[in-house]
Amino acid sequence: MGTPSDALEVLAENYEFIESIGPCLGFRRAASVLKSLPAPLRNINDIEGLPCLGPETKAVIQDIFECGSSSKVEEVLTDERYRTLKIFTSVFGVGPKTAEKWYRRGLRSLEQIVSDSSIHLNKMQIAGFQYYEDISKPVSKAEAEAVGHIIKEIAGCFSPDVTMTLTGGFRRGKEFGHDVDFLLTVPRPGKEDGLLPAVIDQLRIQGLLLYSDFQESTFDLSRLPNRRFEAMDHFQKCFLIVKLKKEQVVGQQAEQRCGRDWKAVRVDLVAPPAERYAFALLGWSGSTQFERDLRRYSRLERNMLLDNHALFDKTTCFFCNKVIHQRRIPMARCDSTASAMLTA
Ligand code: TTP
Ligand code: MN
Ligand code: MN
Ligand code: MN
User: Fold this and answer.
1) Domain that holds residue 182
2) Has residue 151 been placed in a domain?
3) Of 54, 143, 144, 307, which one's alpha carbon is 20 to 30 angstroms from that of 326?
4) What is the SS3 assignment for 143?
């Protein structure tokens, strides 16, 4: 069983499945600390002085160095519930809640799910099962770039001055991902609203669209920021499954003539207004743990609020930068701005 950080991720995931958020985040953070080290741990003394490693984490790492594995982790890995939820949540559109529901009904395999006619699957889950074989395989950097060329060409027809950035794991330098994430925008304010619908239409016309879940923008600057951490932002976005022809991927010749010549790939597109691009880019670059820590740092060390839309300074008016003496959350604004907004 892999590295100490893999072991900690297993524990984190198991806690996520039983909805113990505190321990889940604790193990995730500890795993991130280990992954951030310049060199892998060689022995237990290497963890001396590292932050965010609790006693349970230390015990797991110690077991791995002394016995080759952690009994606590091995137990989770052989646990029927963990194994089943792991399989169920590997389907696009299936989260821990649905997986748990199926598990409690006595279901244990994907075959049982698809052959049980009493189970209602939503549109996303149907696509998740339909393309499971392809989208459960990692997406390579070359495949991500090939998807990028297709989307860029289509978006360029909508507007020649479109900006597009490959984000998510690939922006962090990963060689493989579970999907491909892109941020797109156009300079003229408001024009970005038409961008994703146009891209989706064109993918459909070209026969490349296998699944689409489009979400309209609910972005309203005057109602931000929200007090609570929001995983989802308010920008227009879509979660897609697209058909990627193998011949379009660099280094992948139109090999064996047998079988399909295409692969289904999960793609996320986000279209913030141009003036919000920087914040959206930061938010969509991940990792989730890094984003969480950045927000925490902003809040605790800088008295600011960071999310995918903006960086808010709680001590100055967001609109005119005047110092606010009385802290106002949500939405930092001075008295004159506040009254102007009321009468507007
Ligand atoms: P993911 O694509 O889920 O993760 P990833 O690209 O880091 O890893 P993988 O290679 O497995 O795909 O999400 C990318 C980033 O976008 C992540 O930091 C979370 C963020 N995100 C949002 O900010 N808002 C959203 O609505 C979603 C779905 C993701
Ligand atoms: Mn991704
Ligand atoms: Mn994604
Ligand atoms: Mn003001």
Assistant:
1) 139-288
2) yes
3) 307
4) helix
